[in-house]
Amino acid sequence: MYRLHCFSQSGNCFKVAFLLRALRQPFEPVFIDYLGGVTRAASWRESTNELGEVPVLEDGSRRLTQSGAILTYLAAKHGAYGGDTEDERLDVLRWLLFDNHKFTSYFGTFRFAKAFGPAPPDPAVMAWLLGRIDNAYGIVEKHLKSRAFLIGAKPTIADFSLSGYLFYPVEESGYDVAGRFPSISAWLARMRKIPGWAPPYEVLPGERLPPKW
Ligand SMILES: N[C@@H](CCC(=O)N[C@@H](CS)C(=O)NCC(=O)O)C(=O)O
């Protein structure tokens, strides 16, 4: 059985958990106390992931990290959600890279600072991040105006990747996706209909915490 090292607040982990559930692949969750500093410990980096991050997926003796690499591996292995042609697979890769650079990363950082950071966030940093988030979300909103999913009519791992953080309660980020981005909202409703979808706090291990700041 797959083992997924993860914790409940992590949208990057949810991307993988959601795909495993959509593929009907059972997995054993391994709770990683990220907020307690586990991923920063030298011993954990030595034993589990030198990059100091979750998700980490174990498939027998194979250990994979980086959600984009894990999603790509699972899609190829199970023959689903990877894109049907070379052009589609390249398009999937293009969106995975955009997601990791701009869509998830700025939003994930903003939400973390606002909800779970060790000290009140710096308003100047948050304002800068908001500008970057608005830009990335505007691009995806425009793209989804004329498509059901990122690569056309069917969901792919690109959709699992970009949507991962958007199933968390809005009060954690304070970012009103539903009110500002109707096409993204409609796409999220379609993603929720994929068999296996469930809210992240029901899927991933670890206590749900109230937003701090
Ligand atoms: N691009 C990576 C990002 C992974 C990532 O940033 N994971 C966070 C949790 S959501 C983490 O473990 N961060 C540890 C750290 O930055 O110290 C992926 O998609 O897997």
Features of the shown structure:
213 residues; alpha+beta; 4-stranded mixed sheet; 53% helix; binds glutathione
Characterise this structure.
With 213 residues, the protein is α+β, with helices and mostly antiparallel strands. Helix content is 53%, strand content 8%. It is built from ten helices and four strands, in the order βαβαββαααααααα. It has helices spanning 11-22, 42-47, 67-78, 86-115, 123-144, 157-163, 170-173, 177-180, 182-192, 200-203; strands at residues 2-6, 27-31, 56-59, 62-65. A four-stranded mixed beta sheet has the order 2-1-3-4, covered by helices on one side. Strand 3 and strand 4 (62-65) form a beta hairpin. Helix 1 (11-22) runs antiparallel to helix 6 (157-163), helix 4 (86-115) runs antiparallel to helix 5 and helix 5 (123-144) crosses helix 9. The model has no long low-confidence stretch (mean pLDDT 98). Bound molecules: glutathione.
Task: Outline the fold blueprint.
Layout lengths: L1 E5 L4 H12 L4 E5 L10 H6 L8 E4 L2 E4 L1 H12 L7 H30 L7 H22 L12 H7 L6 H4 L3 H4 L1 H11 L7 H4 L10
Parallel strand pairs: 1-2
Antiparallel strand pairs: 1-3, 3-4
Helix pairs in contact: 1-3, 1-6, 4-5, 4-6, 5-9
The structure holds glutathione (GSH).
Glutathione (GSH) binds next to α3.
